[in-house]
Specification:
single chain; alpha/beta; Rossmann fold; 7-stranded parallel sheet; 46% helix; binds 1,4-dihydronicotinamide adenine dinucleotide
Length: 249
């Protein structure tokens, strides 16, 4: 029996990286897991099903409010509940100083990294209120409490996700909905690999600056997310959990 046995969980950005590792962790802990991504994660969900776990793929662009509403409605109609959610889908802008980031890049980053979390949280909360509780984790970033060169739009969103998490946690604590944020440090995922491919110096700097001396693995974030959503974290609410190999200290 896993810690999430019988639970229904949705994970956004579940086609790759931290989202995929988290969806795998939820499924292996016994949850029926909905893998949500703009690139429908059919193969990823199919692999979990072939291994005997309960998983399903759902294509959704989290910046599309109506599509997010329909997705949560579909989950509620299909499974009658939504016990936990990881709002994790995110994009970065190309690495450039603030004044060189275009309005289009800023707008799309805000649409996915902030409005996407907003959209998902709103409909998740409305469902969780109907059923009397739930647990939500939003993926911010270690840069959401510090900063990161050349990522002004992205980092602004990650700071905002922390404010959103803390405020919503206060708003819904009495109704049994726990809302926390996880702040990954540098984690080896397709997103990080792309940043390093464009600017190899980034990896050199990270390896020098991270006290742990390495980048993290997606599973190391998934473990934190799973715990935050589990009954073991029943009094952890509005918390911002850094998982970064002491990078932010
Ligand atoms: P990734 O790029 O490997 O995976 C992100 C996933 O989100 C992809 O599968 C992508 O298709 C999906 N996605 C993008 N836009 C979407 C949209 N509009 N709707 C639905 N899905 C969408 O990224 P990674 O590294 O796994 O990042 C996951 C989260 O962790 C992001 O929010 C990122 O900002 C955050 N993070 C990552 C860090 C890292 O070092 N990898 C560090 C700190 C935070």
């Amino acid at each position: 029996m896993g810690t999430m046995n019988g639970k229904v969980v949705m994970v956004t950005g579940a086609a790759a990286g931290i989202g995929l590792a988290s969806a795998e962790a939820f499924a292996k802990a016994g949850a029926t897991t909905v893998l949500v991504d703009i690139n429908e994660p059919k193969e990823q969900a199919g692999k979990l099903v072939s291994e005997g776990y309960k998983a399903v793929a759902y294509r959704c662009d989290v910046s599309d409010t109506q599509a997010v509403k329909e997705m949560v409605d579909w989950i509620a109609a299909t499974y009658r509940r939504l016990d936990a959610a990881l709002n994790n889908a995110g994009i970065q802008t190309p690495q450039r100083p603030m004044a060189e980031i275009t309005d289009e890049e800023f707008d799309r980053t805000v649409a996915v990294d902030l409005k996407g979390v907003w959209n998902c949280m709103r409909y998740e909360i409305l469902q969780m209120l109907k059923q009397g509780g739930g647990a939500i984790v939003n993926t911010s970033s270690q840069g959401g409490v510090t900063g990161f060169p050349g990522q002004a739009a992205y980092i602004a969103c990650k700071h905002a996700v922390i404010g959103l998490t803390r405020t919503a946690a206060i708003d819904y604590a009495a109704q049994g909905i726990r809302i926390n944020a996880v702040c990954p440090g540098a984690i080896r995922t397709p997103m990080a690999e792309e940043l390093i491919r464009r600017n190899p110096q980034v990896e050199v700097d990270l390896l020098r600056d991270i006290p742990a001396g390495r980048l993290g693995r997606p599973e190391e974030i998934a473990n934190a997310v799973l715990w935050l959503c589990s009954p073991q974290a029943s009094f952890v609410d509005g918390h911002v959990l850094l998982v970064d190999g002491a990078f932010s200290i």
